[in-house]
Amino acid sequence: EADIYQTPRYLVIGTGKKITLECSQTMGHDKMYWYQQDPGMELHLIHYSYGVNSTEKGDLSSESTVSRIRTEHFPLTLESARPSHTSQYLCASSEGSGEETQYFGPGTRLLVL
Amino acid sequence: KNQVEQSPQSLIILEGKNCTLQCNYTVSPFSNLRWYKQDTGRGPVSLTIMTFSENTKSNGRYTATLDADTKQSSLHITASQLSDSASYICVVSDRGSTLGRLYFGRGTQLTVWP
Lengths: 113, 114
Description:
By secondary structure, chain A is an all-beta fold. Chain A contains no helices and eleven strands. In chain A, the strands form two sheets. In chain A, strands 2, 4, 5, 6, 9, 10 and 11 form a seven-stranded mixed beta sheet that branches. Chain A has a four-stranded antiparallel beta sheet with strand order 1-3-8-7, with no helix packed on it.
């Protein structure tokens, strides 16, 4: 069982609200990732980090932002939520050795009304 | 274009039966291929990982095969159980980038009925 946690698990929020999705891992992994997944579709990488103070945008354009101030913490923020942001957001981490397996959190299901 | 295609999209089998899921990929250069299991409302969990030189890998009742020449992989589930109901995702990693970029299939949704 991977030690990676996400909160909240479910979030229903109105348009225009600012939200932060939390992700933390206790494995000391350098690399962390955020994916977006719609039902029946593949995961799309939206952000990743190689380590503290490192953040990069992924393949899928996203209006969200991330920060990596501590190794174990990689929060994702939406300044103004819109219905198009409705999706499942999955956080993952890996050791950073190159061929490593990514360990996923349970995900946050976001519904923007 | 690097892609991962999985078939079938969905599958229903009876408890105790075997099944095989397919994955075709065009990712190049190839590094490794993983099969993940994703339960509803949960994050994916790694089942197997295979590199270029490996053509079969087992994890309990799960056996994955890889043909790097034809760029095909399969996941065989033996004596299925109700708890096997999940989405099975094929993930291919390319070589030559520090990120180890992953390419995800859309998954096969497996339902096991009693």
